[in-house]
Amino acid sequence: MRDWSAEALAALEAGLLEQVAESNSSTALEAARVAILGRKGNLTAKLKGLSGLAPEQRKDAGRALNRLKQSVEAAIEARKGALADRELEKRLEAECIDVTLPPRKMNVGHLHPLPQAIEELVAIFGEMGFAWAEGPHVEDDFHNFSALNILPDHPARQEQDTFYLPPDAEGLQKVLRTHTSPVQIRTMLSQQPPIRIICPGRTFRSDHDATHSPMFHQVEALAIDEAIHMGHLKGTLVAFLRAYFGIDDLPVRFRPSYFPFTEPSAEVDVGCDRSGGRLTVGAGKDWLEILGSGMVHPRVLQNCGLDPERYQGFAFGMGIERIAMLKYGIPDLRPFFESDIRRMRHYGFLPLEVPSMVRGL
Ligand code: PHE
Questions:
Q1: What is the pTM of this model?
Q2: Which one of 179, 254, 312 would you pick to mutate in the ligand 1 pocket, going by the greatest count of ligand atoms within 8 A of its CB?
Q3: Which of 12, 64, 81, 293 could form a disulfide bond with 316, CB atoms 3.0-4.6 angstroms apart?
Q4: What is the distance in A from the centroid of ligand 1 to the CA of 328?
C-alpha cells in the first residue's frame, strides 16, 4: 500500500522541505511543523507505518525515514532562525526613532499670578512667625460687620456693596464676606493671645469694572499681645512691602485714615513713578495707596472677649490682585479671571501643561 522506494521517500522529503520553505511567518512555520511532526502529522504517520513492514525491509526504510526526519527538522530550525531574524528586522524598522527630528516644543508652565502672589506673601509672613488662618465665605452680620464695629448705618452694609443671601428660616440674612476681617473676629473668639495670623482668601463686593471684580482676594493680618504698638505695625509692613516687591529701600508712607475697626488707622502708600503713562513701584516721587491698617479698636477687642486694658494689637488688609498687578506690571484685573492663555502668556505666565503619555512628553 505504502511506497517505500527511494524515489517515493525523496519525493516526500522534497514536498516537506517545500512546505517548510513556503512558511512565511513563525506562526505558519509552527503550523507546518505540527502538520509534519505533530501527533497527527504526516511524517509521524509515515513513521508509524514502519511497524507494518517486514523486518528486513523495516531496517532500511527506518534508517531512510530517520534521515529524512532529521533533514526536515534541520530545515525547520533553520527556517525558524531566518524568520525570527526577518521579523526582528521588520520590528526594528517599524519602531525606529529618527533622532534627527526636531523635538516637540515643551511649555515649562507657571503658576497663575494670584496663587503665586499668595505663595510669596505667605512665605514672607511665615518667616515673621504669622500662621495661616481661614474662615467661611458666607458670613453672618456679626462676624462681617457688627463685631468689627461697623454700625448699622455704615455705607459698607448697603446693598450696592454687599451681596446678601436670601433670609434663612429664622429670618437672618447672611452675606458673602466683603473683606477678610471677619477671620480676625473668628480667631480672637477661638484663640487666646498672643495671636499672629494672616488670612489670604476670597472676598465679594457688588462692583464690576476694569479695576474691580465682584470676587477678589484679600490678605488680612492680625497680631494681638500685651505690648503691641504702632511701631510693630510699621516695622512689619515696611519689612513685608520691601521683601514682597524686592526693593530694599522702597519708600513707605503712613497716612492717617479711618476704619471702624481700627483706632488709630493708617493708609499705607509706597513710592512709585507714573511718568510716561507707566506705573513703576519703587522709583520716582509719586505715592500709591496700597493697603489699610491700624491698631485694633478697643471695642473690637471687647466684642471678642479680650480686655483692651491688657491686650492691644494691629491689623491690616490688602487686595492681592492689586499687589500682584503692581508687582508683575499687569494693568487691569481682567486677565486674572478670564483664563485667556494669550494674555497670561503676554505677562510671562505660561499655563502648566500636563504631559500626555499618548502624545509623548
Ligand atoms: N478690611 C479693610 C478693607 O476691606 C482693610 C483693613 C483691614 C483695614 C484691617 C484696616 C485693618 O478695606
A1: 0.69
A2: 179
A3: 293
A4: 23
Q: What is the pLDDT of residues 93-122, one digit of tens each?
A: 888 888 888 877 776 677 888 988 999 999
Residue 156 has pLDDT above 80, yes or no: no
- As assigned by CATH, the class of the 113-347 domain is alpha beta
**Rg (the chain; Cα; Å):** 43
Q: How far is the CA of 294 from the centre of ligand 1 (A)?
A: 9
Q: What are phi and psi of 250, to 5 degrees?
A: -55, 125
| Residue 358 banded pLDDT, cuts 50, 70, 90 | very low
> Is residue 260 within 8 Å of 150, Cβ to Cβ?
yes
Mapped onto helix, strand or coil, the DSSP state of residue 41 is coil
What percentage of the chain has pLDDT greater than the value 90? 63
Residue nearest to atom 10 of ligand 1 (CA): 293
d(CA 61, CA 14): 17
Q: Is the distance from CB of 156 to CB of 178 less than 8 angstroms?
A: yes
Q: Which amino acid is at 25?
A: S
**In one letter, which amino acid is 38?**
G
Q: Whose CA is nearest to atom 9 of ligand 1?
A: 316
Under the banding of pLDDT at 50, 70 and 90, the label for residue 343 is confident
Which residue's CA is the nearest one to ligand 1's atom 4?
179
Q: How far apart are CA 219 and CA 319, in angstroms?
A: 7
Residue 182 phi, psi (nearest 5): -60, -25
Copy the grid coordinates of residue 31: 503550523
Q: Using omega within 30 degrees of 0 as the cis cutoff, is the peptide bond preceding 166 cis?
A: no
Ligand 1 neighbours, Cβ below 6 Å, are: 179, 181, 220, 259, 262, 292-294, 315-317
- In the chain, where the domains are located: 6-94, 113-347
- What separation in Å is there between the alpha carbon of 254 and the centre of ligand 1? 14
pLDDT at 279: 83
